[in-house]
Amino acid sequence: MSEKRQPPCPDRASIDTMDSTATALSLFDLPAGEARAPIAPHVADRPDLPGLSELNWRSLYEELSRDGIAVTPPLLTAEQCAEIVGTFDRPGLFRSTVVMQRYGFGRGTYKYYADLEAVPLVRTLRESLYPPLAWMANQWAAQLNERTFPTALPGLAAECAANGQTRPTPLILRYGEGDYACLHQDVYGDVVFPLQIAVMLNQPGTDFTGGESVFVEQRPRSQSRAIVVRPDRGQGVIFPVRHRPVRGTNGFRRHPVRHGTNAVATGRRNVLGIIFHNAT
């Protein structure tokens, strides 16, 4: 049985309805007298992941706070994407395989890696991305009066282990023609890190058509807002696991966010999902 939380059962586009009571507000454009965000951490140069040290995390945080999601420049080369795609057909690397149509989650297949030491590229990417995403998450925590998170991944892993969450959650997803994912949230236990990232492993328009990433933000006393994203191969999409802060008339409030995948029209779509909290 899948561990994902699934309710029953679209270049970027946004289907939006004006909401006069709530607007996203970046910490880098705050009214006079309010604190600015601390400096974003720098990701050290790595020969295997050279693009990470060049990312502008402050700009990505502004995009995330404004839009609810942020699309990175390429994190992986075409060769690295192909390397990860190749793991899908190595059953010994995985602890669980979920055929989505069996559970009403959509259509397609995803697999959870059993031991990230066996897939060092995935392990290194997860460990390197965590500190800047923890920095982002902790800015949101201050806005929502929520708990903050450790600045390095081992600290979060220790919290998860103390709560009985010991199984790794990074996964690879494969969608063929007609496959799709229903809207859902990736919650695996009581310890939930609030951000995750999905890395596109194929080239849209060449390897597949359709299959856009879809995000739906629920807005109190207003219609829901849909965002449709089509990242290129190697790019990552940063998005909330459960909710994001949006400023209203009485301070920040939580807007729940769910994500899914539009039906693939042709070809095959592979995605690497990097979730930072572990599962029970």
Mean pLDDT: 88
Q: Would you give the CATH topology?
A: Jelly Rolls
- Any idea what the CATH architecture is? Sandwich
Question: Helical element count?
Answer: 4
| SS-derived structural category | alpha+beta
Count of β-strands: 16
**Major β-sheet, in short?**
7 strands, antiparallel
Distance between the termini: 13 Å
The SSE order reads EHEHEEEHHEEEEEEEEEEE
CATH class reads: Mainly Beta
Gyration radius, in Å: 18 Å
Spans where pLDDT lies below 50 across 5 or more residues: 5-35
* Percent strand: 25-35%
- Identify the overall geometry: globular
Give the count of structural domains.
Answer: 1
Helical residue percent band: 10-25%
The CATH H-level superfamily is: q2cbj1_9rhob like domain
Write the layout of secondary structure elements.
Layout: E1 13-15, H1 57-67, E2 70-74, H2 78-87, E3 94-99, E4 106-107, E5 109-113, H3 120-144, H4 153-162, E6 171-175, E7 180-184, E8 195-200, E9 208-210, E10 213-217, E11 225-229, E12 235-240, E13 243-248, E14 251-261, E15 264-267, E16 269-274
Q: Overview of this structure, please?
A:
This protein has 280 residues and is of the alpha+beta class. The protein has one domain: q2cbj1_9rhob like domain (Jelly Rolls, Sandwich). It is 20% helix and 30% strand. It contains four helices and 16 strands. The chain has helices spanning 57-67, 78-87, 120-144, 153-162, and strands at residues 13-15, 70-74, 94-99, 106-107, 109-113, 171-175, 180-184, 195-200, 208-210, 213-217, 225-229, 235-240, 243-248, 251-261, 264-267, 269-274. The strands form three sheets. Strands 1, 4, 7, 10, 11, 13 and 14 form a seven-stranded antiparallel β-sheet that branches. The longest helix is centred in the middle third of the chain and has 25 residues, at 120-144. The model is unreliable at 5-35 (pLDDT under 50).
